[in-house]
Write a structure and sequence with these properties.
Number of strands: 16
Largest sheet: 10 strands, mixed
Strand content: 25-35%
Amino acid sequence: MRALAATLVFASAAAGAAIVSGCDAFDASGDTPAPPAEAGAPADSGSNSAPDGGGGGGGGDAGGDAGCTTVERVFDVSKDTGWASNGCAMANSFGDFEYLNFDMVAMTFREPSDTGIDLATVTAMRLELAADPNCSGCAGGLPTKAGNVSIHPMRIDWVERVAVGGTYAGADACRRTDGNPGKGWGPDRPAGGGTMIASPVDFDGLAGTLTLNNNDVAVKATLDPAAFKARFGGRTVIEIGVLLIRDSNGRIVIASKESKTLPKPRLILTTCVPK
């Protein structure tokens, strides 16, 4: 979970949500970021531009119309982490964890050829996740519970905590880099209790909704490309950031990029390239 790519974060919409770190449950209380109603203006999201002339990525020809060729491009997850909504000095899913848990989960997806993709040509997007209800061997299991997860574009310039790093070794609810204090979310400033992740600097408005059903093992959501173009611009990019915020009822433990047995998260973009 340590490279650069599209960023994904899960945040509980209500305080008091039960979180599991390893096999130990704990309560996550405190304020969570309120999702904005509409996509915000582009924000500084770190270096994300690809070299001129890039087209790139996996996927195949998915047809097209008279004016363009339609191709699907797959962005692979390259870093991911998770923390409680009030976890300002810790992350509960990180490093070599094979699963990602709530309140918040951040991911970055990267175009695999590193040549990037022209967002101006993107006509459709979807996010695909696999549930890991046994959290890679956790006793008792945590099956998916019905609910909704809102999906938002977010910045990409955060650091994943590694397992050996300990406290302050990477992003959590109040910091996006390693170090004590490190850099907080929002403007460029030292991390502290007042630097929790928030809109519009760190994430934007709604790009899609993931609907969870009881005992789901594979889920996907359709995303609005316009929301991502608003943050990253209609230009060629290598990385894309995504934030997911669940309601108080929903629950899903998802397979991370370290999973040895389950499909890893994928972000799939459909492009329409002029003939």
